């Protein structure tokens, strides 16, 4: 009985590991799209290579981790625009700089929906997989 419990626990841990790997792929591709004019092409290529590897080796339920991964760059964009919307000025000892920032709320909401949605879909699929055993 103990061997069976350990096997189930290792399989669950493995499933979460694949989910986190897909989360990283989704974040890499989304960040690549956001930075397409600079390092975006390299990030998209890295994400594509990782996706091919994961499709060959990983659990298919964990693929929804890429949905949650898309949220991470959106959270970063919301954080960097936290002073917006509009012109935001910063003063230092040597001068001041002003930048125009977007409204952070749409990025935050979209990121939260994708992040929570990806986790919920994964949990539902994982629960169904466990029930079918």
UniProtKB/TrEMBL annotation:
From the record, give the transmembrane residue ranges.
20-53, 60-79, 105-125
Q: Which domain of life is it from?
A: Bacteria
Q: Does the keyword Membrane apply?
A: yes
Q: Does the keyword Transmembrane apply?
A: yes
**Entry keyword set:** Membrane, Transmembrane, Transmembrane helix
**What protein am I looking at?**
Integral membrane protein
Question: Which taxonomic lineage does the organism of this UniProt entry have?
Answer: Bacteria, Bacillati, Actinomycetota, Actinomycetes, Kitasatosporales
């Amino acid at each position: 009985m103990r061997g069976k419990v350990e096997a189930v626990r290792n399989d669950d841990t493995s499933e979460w590991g694949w989910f986190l790997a897909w989360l990283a792929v989704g974040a890499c591709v989304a960040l690549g799209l956001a930075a397409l004019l600079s390092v975006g092409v390299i990030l998209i290529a890295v994400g594509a290579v990782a996706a091919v590897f994961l499709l060959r080796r990983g659990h298919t339920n964990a693929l929804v981790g890429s949905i949650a991964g898309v949220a991470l760059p959106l959270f970063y964009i919301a954080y960097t625009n936290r002073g917006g919307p509009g012109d935001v000025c910063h003063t230092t000892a040597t001068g001041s700089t002003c930048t125009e920032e977007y409204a952070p709320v749409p990025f935050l909401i979209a990121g939260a929906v994708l992040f929570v949605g990806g986790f919920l879909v994964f949990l539902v699929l994982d629960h169904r997989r466990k029930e079918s055993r």
